[in-house]
Design goal:
The chain is of the alpha/beta class. The chain folds into 2 domains: 4-250 and 465-481, 3-Layer(aba) Sandwich (Rossmann fold), CATH 3.40.50; 274-459, 3-Layer(aba) Sandwich (Rossmann fold), CATH 3.40.50.2000. It has 20 helices and 18 strands. The protein has helices at 20-34, 47-52, 89-92, 110-124, 147-153, 178-181, 202-209, 218-223, 227-230, 234-239, 274-286, 310-321, 335-347, 360-369, 385-391, 402-407, 413-417, 431-445, 448-459, 465-481, and strands at 4-8, 38-44, 57-62, 70-76, 82-87, 137-141, 161-165, 173-174, 195-196, 199-201, 212-215, 244-246, 297-304, 326-333, 352-356, 372-375, 396-399, 424-426. The strands form 3 sheets. A 9-stranded mixed beta sheet has the order 3-4-5-2-1-6-7-11-12, sandwiched between helices. A 6-stranded parallel beta sheet has the order 15-14-13-16-17-18, sandwiched between helices. Strand 14 (326-333), helix 13 and strand 15 form a beta-alpha-beta unit. Helix 4 packs across helix 5 (147-153), helix 11 crosses helix 14 and helix 12 crosses helix 18 (431-445). It is globular. Bound molecules: adenosine-5'-diphosphate (ADP). The site of adenosine-5'-diphosphate has 18 residues, from helix 1, strand 13, strand 14 and helix 14.
């Protein structure tokens, strides 16, 4: 019998993306389908999605609790993935982003917006659904779908569910009145339920009621059981450690592969790296840097937040640039960090390039055109850019945390000898150790033999989705057997 999985997510690349969740939501369902699973991806009907998918068919209508009426529309994506779009103009048809308005403020009705998404997923996963297609497992992602396991818990004949945590720092915490507004039973508002320090937490609800919890790297699965990175949920997660697993995200090599990446100035492969230099020059020109094939060029693509450690990069920038080196920053986020990045740009024009905003094409060019990729995240559940950069022959400098620790091997005598060295790993997450790692990277860069070995080791790594998809299927099978 073919296994059926309902995959619920608040973003999916390339239709709507604010971060790694979108990449995962595009690639994992496709990998599951390739492994023989029948998948439906449920997403909110944002304008970007409705515009991109003109061929939508009506599937069902929902009038649930106090939520506005919504309809379910079906389409097939170009890669064959079947998508269900939850159309509810009152909640999703607006400008701005999926979670925030144009000024970066959270939408005030986010509890309703993602409560509805969670509720519809639970209806589809229970005997309340009138559709012929019923999932064997519901796979939820992050806080936006965190109420699904809670709704399923109180529904009839509910499918088992997996709660995937891509970043525990975002929890979807709302005032207690939302419990009744969202149609959750009053008795669920307690420590053994959806309550989180007096508020309603979507993610806590998911972690409490889900049959299985997954997160996106083995190290992060351990780290979130401790106070430092548990964001107040470490007790619950440690208590549920037997149903908590860490499965590394993969890379979609149809999107992220320098050998067939049309966004690049020139494609290249491990066998012939000459095209990489063309990308460096293109990047230098695009970002207003002095064109210089020799100088080490550091790149960073990131949300500008404390988590990602951009402040550490800004702190060491004078020393880094004095090596000498160049620096390219692409990102958006915290207003103070954006301002500080632009100040750096003005102070070091020709040596620093900054693009404030989201630019998919430029992100590929940075991966390809930089010599070294910077990812000094204070914590990182999995991280994708460090895997992309290894594939693009751009060794990353990373903090030893979460998925960064699990995917980058520090360059030293032993790892160069055994052919595993693929980047520079530092700890603790402070400016001094970052600077030390950056110096090590620059020294290695000028040693052609070492640098080439590092590039080859990284480029030959296999981070494809097949292995991760198989690990999820194993979890689904376990849940279905129960
Ligand atoms: P997170 O999901 O925490 O933001 P990840 O490394 O897992 O971090 O994934 C980030 C994804 O978003 C990557 O695909 C990265 O290239 C992309 N990204 C982040 N910021 C930008 C930006 N400003 N422009 C283009 N792509 C970006």
């Amino acid at each position: 019998m073919i296994m059926r999985v309902l995959y619920v997510t608040s973003e999916i690349a390339p239709l709507i993306k604010t971060g790694g969740l979108a990449d995962v939501s595009a690639a994992l369902p496709a990998a599951l389908i390739a492994a023989g699973v029948d998948v439906r991806v449920l997403v909110p009907g944002y304008p970007q999605i409705l515009r991109a998918l003109p061929q939508l068919n009506d599937v069902a209508l929902f009038a649930l609790h106090d939520f506005p009426c919504a309809s379910l529309l079906a389409a097939v994506l170009p890669d064959g993935v079947r998508i269900w779009v939850l159309d509810c103009p009152e909640l999703y048809q607006r400008g701005g982003g999926p979670y925030q308005d144009e000024h970066g403020h959270d939408w005030p009705d986010n509890a309703q917006r993602f409560g509805l998404l969670s509720k519809v997923a639970a209806v589809l996963g229970s005997s309340d659904s009138s559709l012929g297609w019923k999932p064997d497992v519901v796979h939820c992602n992050d806080w936006q779908t965190g109420l699904t396991p809670a709704y399923l818990h109180f529904a009839n004949k509910a499918a088992p569910c997996v709660m995937a945590i891509h970043n525990l720092a975002f929890q979807g915490v709302f005032p207690p009145d939302c419990v009744a507004e969202l149609g959750l039973p009053a008795q669920s508002f307690q420590m053994e339920g959806v309550e989180y320090y007096g508020s309603l937490s979507f993610l806590k609800a998911g972690a409490y009621y889900a049959d299985h919890i997954s997160t996106v790297s083995p190290s992060y699965a351990e780290e979130i059981q401790d106070e430092a990175l548990g964001f107040g949920m470490q007790g619950l997660l440690a208590q549920r450690h037997e149903v908590l697993s860490g499965i590394l995200n993969g890379v979609d090599y149809t999107e992220w592969n320098p050998g067939c990446d049309t966004r690049l100035a020139q494609e290249y492969t491990a066998g012939d790296l000459r095209g990489k230099l063309a990308n460096k020059i293109e990047l230098q020109m695009r970002m207003g840097l002095r064109v210089d094939p020799e100088v080490p060029l550091f790149g960073m693509v990131s949300r500008f937040t404390f988590q990602k450690g951009l402040d550490l990069v800004l702190e060491i920038a004078p020393e880094l640039l004095a090596m000498p080196a160049q620096l390219v920053l692409l990102g958006t986020g915290d207003a103070d960090m954006q301002r500080a990045a632009l100040e750096l740009l003005h102070k070091y024009s020709g040596q620093v390039g900054v693009y404030v905003g989201f630019n998919e094409e430029l992100s590929h060019l940075v991966e390809a055109g930089a010599d070294v990729f910077l990812m000094p995240s204070r914590f990182e559940p999995c991280g994708l850019n460090q895997m992309y950069s290894q594939r693009y022959g751009t060794p990353p400098v990373v903090h030893a945390t979460g998925g960064l620790k699990d995917t980058v091997v520090d360059c030293n005598v032993a790892t160069l000898a055994d052919g595993t060295a693929s980047g520079f790993v530092f700890s603790p997450a402070d400016a001094d150790s970052l600077l030390l790692a950056v110096r090590r990277a620059v020294d290695a860069y000028y040693d052609k033999k070492i640098w080439h070995a590092l590039q080859m080791n990284g480029m030959s790594k296999d981070f494809s989705w097949g292995k991760s998809a198989a690990a999820y299927i194993e979890i689904y099978e376990r849940l279905m057997r129960r």
